[in-house]
Design brief:
Strand content: under 5%
Number of helices: 25
Order of helices and strands: HHHHHHHHHHHHHHHHHHHHHHHHH
CATH superfamily of the largest domain: MFS general substrate transporter like domains
InterPro entries: MFS_dom, MFS_sugar_transport-like, MFS_trans_sf, Sugar_transporter_CS
Function: May be a proton symporter involved in the uptake of osmolytes such as proline and glycine betaine.
Largest sheet: none
GO molecular function, one term: symporter activity
Main location: membrane
Keywords: Cell membrane, Membrane, Symport, Transmembrane, Transmembrane helix, Transport
């Protein structure tokens, strides 16, 4: 009898995570990530210069506000090393809880900060803002990779790319929630009320997402792939050293495979919003060029597209419509990547991004229909390229360094593609005296680099995900 019980117990299957729990647990962190980006980016333009840097001139205050925003990008690679170490040492579950807490608490605390207008807080208010942004970046550095591993390491056979789209959906969801909240606040509050206290609401609301995420993640069991690493005694003592020793090539390839995705995303969101809400004319651009002592060339005049001059709320609604296509095609991308393979599909989509970059001038110059076509096409391509990344980057790395490797590639790419993209785009826009031709060319150039990385990489669809170690 005891033998029978023992055999039955030993044959009992290991506990698994229900699909619904995997979906919510992997989705909530990236939703907060992109929600936070838009909430802070909007506040950084509208109120943070006056609230946290009131003693500076307007231009310097705005730059200071964006410098605080950039602190998160500096912290992200550090976070990828920190949380990657623990994700590969102690497991995905505990690390994901820690990254969510780090990110979520910092986001909520920003909504509680006193401003520099409060006597005695002139120095500490902006300093604490930078510290909170840095803490957000640390958490974000480990969040995406852990969420992607949670999804793909719990995926059934031949469904890793489909499960890998779960965390990717956080990008369009975070964008839509953040911008709907700001639209609601802009309609319901006066500018004075928003500056006084309304700006805090979006940061405090993120606490709801954090609580839901923690509740679900604490109920998780460890992923099967990491359990196999533990059972084999292959846990890396120093994952960072191991990944650079055994997978340095994959680190480089993964960084550039993600590059065009990041450049496309931040051009489609931050730059198009700036360009779409700026009013300018060819005459004003020519006058500005002459004031600089370099009149516009014939090519610049031919490719000039005036700032579109939309009201901010109107253009936000247009962006939200475009982002709906982002979400739809993120889901579509998973089955396509399973059917055709990650590499082949991503090469095809990246070719589409390259061509799309060359169409910016005619689309932006074609009125409302052209602008909506640009937003729909751009966000469709974004969904098709972003969706497979949840499987593509983790599949490049063996199981015992997978968290560290995918996190480093993702976050270094965020610096090369995301952190600098809005600044490069505005610089190229000004350099070309109001033409968006160079901005579109910049996107196409990023696509070329991604194509090269994909060409040099191998198809990862059929890698032995649970038994591969470095």
């Amino acid at each position: 009898m005891s033998t029978s019980v023992s055999s039955s117990a030993s044959a009992a299957p290991a506990p698994v995570n229900p699909r619904s729990r995997v979906v919510i647990a992997s989705l909530v962190g990236t939703s907060i990530e992109f929600y936070d980006f838009y909430v802070y980016a909007t506040a950084a333009v509208l109120v943070f210069p006056a609230l946290f840097f009131p003693n500076q001139d307007p231009a310097t205050a705005l730059l200071s506000s964006f410098a605080a925003f950039g602190a998160a990008f500096v912290a992200r690679p550090i976070g990828s090393i920190l949380f990657g170490h623990f994700g590969d040492r102690i497991g995905r579950k505990g690390t994901l809880v820690a990254s969510l807490l780090t990110m979520g608490i910092a986001t909520v605390l920003i909504g509680c900060l006193p401003t520099a207008q409060v006597p005695g807080w002139e120095f500490w208010a902006p300093a604490l803002l930078v510290i909170m942004r840095f803490a957000q970046g640390l958490g974000l550095g480990g969040e995406w990779s852990g969420a992607a591993l949670l999804a793909t390491e719990n995926a059934p056979k031949n469904k890793r790319a489909i499960y890998g789209t779960f965390p990717q959906l956080g990008a369009p969801i975070g964008f839509i929630i953040a911008n709907l909240i700001f639209l609601w606040l802009s309609v319901g509050l006066s500018p004075e009320a928003f500056a006084a206290w309304g700006w805090r609401i979006p940061f405090l609301i993120s606490a709801v997402l954090v609580i839901v995420g923690l509740y679900v993640r604490l109920k998780l069991v460890e992923t099967p792939a990491f359990q196999k690493v533990v059972e084999k005694g292959e846990v890396a003592k120093l994952p960072l050293a191991r990944v650079f020793k055994t997978s340095w090539r994959q680190l480089i390839l993964g960084t550039f495979i993600m590059l065009a995705t990041y450049v496309l995303f931040y051009l489609m969101t931050t730059f198009t919003l700036t360009f779409g809400t700026t009013a300018s004319t060819l005459e004003a651009a020519q006058a500005g060029a002459e004031a600089k002592g370099k009149p516009m060339s014939a090519e610049a005049i031919d490719t000039f597209v005036p700032g579109l001059g939309y009201a901010r709320n109107d253009f936000l609604i247009m962006l939200i419509v475009g982002v709906v296509f982002f979400g739809i095609f993120t889901l579509v991308a998973g089955p396509l990547a399973e059917k055709f393979g990650r590499r082949k599909m991503l090469m095809t989509v990246t070719l589409g991004i390259l061509v799309f970059g060359l169409l910016w001038v005619p689309l932006f110059g074609a009125g409302f229909v052209g602008v909506m076509a640009l937003l729909v096409i751009g966000f469709t391509l974004m969904g098709l390229t972003f969706g497979p990344m949840g499987a593509q980057l983790p599949e490049l790395f063996p199981g015992n360094v997978r968290y560290t490797g995918s996190a480093i590639s993702y976050n270094v790419s965020s610096i090369l593609g995301a952190a600098v993209a809005p600044f490069i785009a505005v610089f190229l826009w000004q350099l070309a005296d109001g033409s968006v031709f160079l901005v579109g060319t910049y996107l196409s150039a990023a696509a070329v680099l991604t194509l090269i990385a994909l060409f040099l990489s191998k198809e990862t669809k059929d890698v032995d995900y649970e038994n591969d170690v470095a």
